[in-house]
User: Fold these one by one.
Assistant:
Number 1:
Amino acid sequence: MARYSWPVAIVLALVIIAGATLLLFRTNPTTYSLVEQSETLHVDTDQLLVAPNGRRPQDLNSQPNDATFGTVLPYFAAPRR
Amino acid sequence: MLLIGLIFISLFTRPVFAMASATAPDTTTPSYLQDVFVFSSNEDSERLIVAFTAAELKSDTIYQFNFDTNRDGIEDRVIQATFSDTDPRHATITEPALPERTGETISPADARRLSGPVSMHASPEILMDRDIAIRAFAGLRDDPRGGPDFAGAQTYAVVVELVLPSILAEHKSDLDIWVSVYERSIN
């Protein structure tokens, strides 16, 4: 028993030192807090209208002006200069 | 041994916070989001396009598309968009990923991401990568809202095209989608 005690003690000491070091230098993960959330939109993907030819997206908050949607990604008209 | 146990428990545990999908807006903060849109691609019925418009794209902020596939009010997949404060500005948009955390406090998702310029010109700069199954756009556009109040107005649009199987199990077609905005917490 005695002849195994010192290696066990060394291993335990190393584990404790390693754990304490990790704890000491552990950086908190960057967190982000909620500031705004849209309404939830329930979507049936089988029923969705297509874009851009369909030109009427499901819109949560207001009725879009169809004429402003483009014909390719990003579906929105170019900015005005 | 108890000390070792405590050290390792503290290393690998994080607070878990779940919330319902409907959160009352905080009227004391300025509004970030204008509209949220969902399209089906006319090129490929397996592709979905989600978009939001916003008055500005802030740095130190995560704009997150949330996809709830089992209607429990908790996001099952997320797409996160962040924007640099450099000049010119850069957008970074993740592919659909499991959220690291859900609820009112989140962390950046561990996912592959597209990166590129925030488009400020008439010709849109589409962000894409052959190894990532999304296409994305972020930039200035004409405000799509109708009516005289918005005539000539401009807005920022963030548009992501994704493949449905990346968020939805086979033979399922319904899901809940919303967009949320998170600001970097001060630790």
Number 2:
Amino acid sequence: MIAHPPVLALVLASTLSALVMVPTFVFALRLLARWDPSSGNEEQLKLEKTTYLVSTLVAFVAVVELASLAAFAFNADRMAVLFVGAMCAVGTLNASSYGFPTLVAKIAVFFAAFVWLVLDRTDNKGRDYPFILQKYWGILLLALLVVLDAALQLAYFLDLKASTITSCCGKLFGDAGLGAGAELAGIEPRLALVLLFGGLAITIALSFGTARSRLMGRLLGLASPAMFAIAIAGVISVISVHVYEQPHHHCPFCLLKREYGFFGFLLYIPLFAATGSGMAAGLLSALPARQSLSDVLPPLLGRLSILTISGFALFGGLSLWKIMASRLTLM
Amino acid sequence: MIELCAVTKTYNAGRPNEVVALGATDLTISDKALTVFAGPSGSGKTTLITIVGCLARPTSGRVVLNGEAVSGLPQRFLTEVRRRTFGFVFQRFNLVRGISAIENVMLPAYPIGTPHARLKTRAMELLSSFGMAHRAHFNVEILSGGEVQRVAIARALVNDPEVIIADEPTASLDGERVAHFLAIAADLKARGKTVIVTSHDPRVTGAATVDRLVTLADGRPADATP
Amino acid sequence: MTALSRTRYFLDFAVSSLLRRRWRTLSLILVYSCIVALLGSVLLFGTALRREAATQLSTGPDIVVQSMIMGRHDMLRAADLDALRGLRGLRRGEARLWGYLYDSSAAANYTLMANADTAPGEALVGEGVARARKLEPGKLLFLVSPAGKFLKVRVKSVIAPKSALISSDLVLLNEADLRAFFSVAPDLYTDLALFVANPREVATIAQKGAIRLPGRRFVTREDLTRSYESLFSWREGLVLVILAGAVIAFAIFAFDKASGLSSEERREIGILKAVGWDTSHIIAQKLIEGGLVSGTSFLIGFILAYAHVFLFRAVLFEPVLTGWSTLYPRFRLTQEIDGLQVTSLALLTILPYVAAILVPVWRTASADPDEVMR
């Protein structure tokens, strides 16, 4: 283990999140077993009171996980000097087999918490606890994800040893390399762009229909995470090389560095927001219709789809701008 | 109109210190009238107004407010109904110390998010109507008993509620102030408000302006005059 | 719109609520700021030291070649440098002559180094040496070798403390003066410094060089950076782990403050709930209070840490994090604030605080609204 201050901060953050989610998990089980809104007995009142605590705790975990997702990526970049062969975050993440799984778990926790908070807000607007049971099934899932994330991250940091020999983005995303990274980097630029902008067009079109059609909403719920994956693939295969203006530099992390004007943030923040809200809209469309939400749901779906549309549009626009303005021409 | 059907309230149910504060109670409170709940302390009248005023939920039974069953509402909606429908004047007036009279009057409107200028004007109007404009910016600790009472009533009115609930409002007041309070209650009724008062004070229960007197004993209404 | 003005009301009420409990708020902010200042100093100092080292290394050679005998460092010959000439990609190589001298009068170790630009009888001294021996340009510096030889040189200038961490104990001399002082044969050198044109080829050149010069050690700049980095990280991490106790104590303090409500406060929350505030409103208002306290304390603590490290040269930490000689540089560290360090500091301090108050806040906020009637 490398007891570097950001590492300690990240371990503290994930441990606290996990500690918060364990009792929440137990409470969710109790609520699922005992919930009875028609009763006015003290147990029901106590369950109801505790739901306020759960909402607050999940919001806390979401904020912490968002901060630690950013810090995790940055820290990986900063720690690259400790490993032979590492030049950026990729090298650090690659220095242990737990590195990339931890990153994926962190992203998953962020999206799960985001979607859950939207569901919570929606449920709070209905006068008959319309989605209380779905919400607490969700808590069970979220708690498992948070604990998994904390465990993976701890395993990762414990496994890291200074002077580990690792390979960096040049190898992982190199055109000649093997494995998923290289596959992505090797995608024909024209194909990648068609996939990226085609996908964006479809996803945005679905978002426009979400407030009116439940089917479109459900499709958006599936399309958003797919779009997220396509977007990351697009970043690796074409967008990154145009930002760096080097035909063989495919790294999706170096974008976050100061040398490239923190362009990665500009690109990833709208992408995460759009994906999260698209998934939330999808979930709300997939859950059974409720009378008590008939006034609330359409405007809420409208707001979520505006966020989805503007996020994906911003991502697409920025990518297009970078590709056009780049001195590198692949096509 | 507020209707209570078979409402009960039990504290610490199933434990040795179980208390049945309210036995099965059926009650209808009509609009634009002054209703008084009378009875000795421990008779359940405070429990009854906490349930009528949506401060607490009944253990069983239904509370129907203007046709909507409110007893099964989630807590946040119960709070919303309470904020919109009821204004409270508490026994010891319960102003928040350390802040000014006008801020105390404005407090119930904070969660609504009324624009500040509008809320301030409204609070000032209310204080003026009780002759308290000159004391609006004083901290409440330095106000006299009568002034505190008037600030508490102004606070109860700030969200323009349909129903005003006063719990033992005259417990610590002299005869002149009791008369004053009854005059205010009559005036509120004349303005179309429903007024509900709990009291064991004969100066209130025997007042001519009372439309209906509900006497409680041992956690249930013993008798009612029309 | 209403959500905005609602938040403003909660903010106003939070401020007035904190001011009403002035002493409690102040004591909390005091303790909180101290914790932030303590941890912040460690982080800022660590970052600044790391940066100093990086600056120093970035101007240094790409590869250093040392001769080894029985695992110990030995002198090289000039012929070794000739053997490396012609290596493809090697831009420049130089043989360096330098050594250490313990000065018993100042109880300090100096690094004596030959410098091509220094004339015989002259010296350039580091800032620490100048301080220890009260030197300034034009004054004379007397040195005594372990063998009892004397050297008298005139100080030409004091080396500008651009990266004082490493140059502080430096004395630059003419090569002939240095050889005479230490009685070193003309052909011997301490090590070789190699400069490489393309940084990507450093490792390859070191490998090829090692084949031409077996038995010599090739240390690349990356190796040095890595060992510096892990050294600093370790020490910093160690200090932070020790400070974890302080953070836990602080979290308990915060938990206690947040849960030990006065009866006045309990009454106040009961009133708010009775007049129509929801549990979520009270939680929001209390968290705004916590946010204000955290923000203020973080700012104060960070400013204190900044002042401590950069204006007062981290006086409290010198022995822990550097701790070698009396020549510890008396310099101003290059001031740098780094986003990751600030985020780490926030996670390490604000997170335990917020986590400690969440449950007490909720417990406070979920008081029954009918309590004021009882």
